[in-house]
UniProtKB/TrEMBL annotation:
GO molecular-function term, one example from the UniProt record: phosphatidylinositol phosphate binding
Protein name: Rubicon Homology domain-containing protein
InterPro entries: Autophagy_HostDef_Reg, RH_dom
One Pfam family recorded for the sequence: RH_dom
Residue ranges constituting the Rubicon Homology domain according to the UniProt record: 108-301
SMART domains the record matches: DUF4206
Superkingdom, taxonomy of origin: Eukaryota
Length: 301
């Protein structure tokens, strides 16, 4: 019998953990994701037997995540030389040149399309690049064309960028790894809380964080990168944790640690203090599990 310790996880070994379980850009981005954020209350009772997170995915996010063609947003574009464009702007076909040692240049490279555009077709606003965010968690702002800016703006708020638990990003980026731990807590809490609408009231347009899949918008990743989203979600987690701590209905959904037999319910979402047996899935205090073998498994040996 082996234990799955949900707290003793290093940045170098995130797979074991996930296997079990700048400036404001609001003025630049219209509320394009609003239709994907509201879950009508009646749907929580319509699908009996399904966890709230699965209902949320099926009713709100499945269509956009699974049907939208986002390959060009998640994969680096081919890199072209200016001569391969016949020294013409990729958009308006105006003659362009990169000058002599950049002197007299009248064009620039769009990091999103990998093509050269004239100065008139280049945007003065620099943007984070989706594929760079997924490739190396690089959320710096790069030069883009006006066409690219428009494309990125339209999808900026939509959770179409998925980071799988096996992503190498998690092995080297502590900021992202720690946020995914927090997101996992929110997901598990959402599935057990007495009234999922309490979570929806707080998270509002961030309900994609309640899904089991790690699907983010470019806005999410940018705010994880600068730390602002982590602070907000940590605050929400504290509020929801306090509700569960005093709510009789939520306490009934907890578990009693059969090692110490303390009659204070523990919950699977409290992954910093709780672990469970990978054989029978019984939940225990982490400290208790480190000192004694799973009594449930011992009973049936």
């Amino acid at each position: 019998m082996s234990w799955i310790n949900q707290n003793q996880v290093t940045v170098n070994k995130p797979n074991n953990f996930f296997g079990i379980f700048s400036q404001s850009r609001d003025s630049l981005h219209p509320d394009s994701g609003e239709q994907f954020t509201k879950l009508p209350p009646h749907l929580y009772t319509k699908h009996k037997g399904k966890k709230p997170s699965q209902i949320l995915y099926d009713e709100i996010y499945k269509e956009i995540i699974e049907t939208l063609n986002i390959n060009r947003f998640t994969q680096p574009p081919p890199q072209y030389e200016l001569k391969e464009q016949n020294f013409k702007c990729w958009q308006c076909q105006k003659p362009i040149s990169n000058g002599f040692l950049t002197i007299g240049a009248n064009c620039d490279l769009c990091f999103f399309h990998g093509r050269y555009f004239c100065n008139d077709c280049m945007s003065v606003v620099r943007m984070p690049i989706p594929w760079k965010a997924l490739e190396s968690f690089d959320l710096r702002h790069y030069k883009v064309s006006k066409v690219a800016q428009s494309e990125i703006d339209k999808l900026y708020d939509l959770p179409i960028l998925e980071i799988p638990p096996t992503s190498k990003l998690l092995q080297f980026n502590k900021t992202l790894f720690e946020f995914l731990v927090l997101k996992r807590q929110i997901h598990l809490l959402y599935d057990m809380i007495c009234d999922p609408k309490l979570v929806q009231t707080l998270l509002d347009k961030r309900m994609n964080l309640c899904l089991k899949r790690n699907c983010f918008s470019l806005k999410d990743l940018y705010e994880i990168y600068n730390g602002s989203l982590t602070k907000v979600i940590q605050g929400y987690y504290v509020i929801l944790f306090k509700h569960i701590d005093v709510c009789k209905s939520c306490q009934k959904r907890g578990h009693i640690c059969s090692i110490c037999q303390r009659m204070v319910p523990i919950h699977a979402f409290d992954i910093k203090n709780v672990t469970y047996c990978d054989a029978c899935l019984k939940v225990y205090h982490r400290d208790c599990a480190e000192q004694k073998s799973c009594p449930n498994c011992l009973q049936y040996r």
